[in-house]
Amino acid sequence: MHLSALFLSAFASAALGALNEPCAGPGGVAGVCVTTSTCSASGGTTISGGCPADPADVKCCSKTSCANGASGNCRWTSDCAGTTVTNQCPGPAAFKCCSSGATGFGGYAAPTIPTAGTSSGACKAVSVAGAQAVVAAWPGRVREIFCTRACACPGTSDHCCGKAIDLMCSDGGGVPTSSGREIAEWVMNNRASLNLKYVIWGQRIWNPSEDSVAAWTSWRAMEDRGDVTQNHWDHVHVSFN
After folding, report:
1. Residue limits of the ARB-07466-like C-terminal domain (predicted)?
2. Which of 14, 96, 129, 147 is the least crowded, having the fewest Cβ atoms under 10 Å away?
3. Cβ atoms of residues 200 and 193 within 8 Å
4. Distances from the Cα of 194 to the Cαs of 138, 146, 191, in angstroms?
């Protein structure tokens, strides 16, 4: 699934909250942005501030115990190391009761690394090197990598000039995951060797020229762009200088 078409409306008007999309509950457990009444009806608990730009009645809801074996817990299906059952958890269908307490992040075959070129719209060497570094540091965690987009350089995106990569880290395009947080923070911590311009994950952005090193939960919040992919809940976006 190529992402170029999905980003055409990347700068659409901001909505109030990322309803039914991921968030981080207490201790980093998987959560979902839902209304407080939905969370309460499902037996979950809420925390404030977990859903960027959320209205007062939309909060991060998590549920760490549900009826699917001794370790049953609510999480995104892409991250479940066991089996899942429905009708146990708040939020959308992809947030289900998992039988395992272990993360199911990744497990993918090694992705194809983009090829570098010298033409205006080709993937640049810095992007290829960045992709190689991430895959080496996180084997099995990246399913697919995109670099270029069908747009003239400089365009409105670093993809137009081949100076950005999208690291797909869920089971499919548009499939939410919590997996990208560790990868995104690793990119931040290795900013110098990667020649990083900025990194985006989970509706938050970090730029070495503007931001202090911090946990992803403290990164600058971005507007709600309308879906899982555009809000970067299925991939990590990395731009290079």
Report:
1. 120-233
2. 14
3. no
4. 15, 17, 5
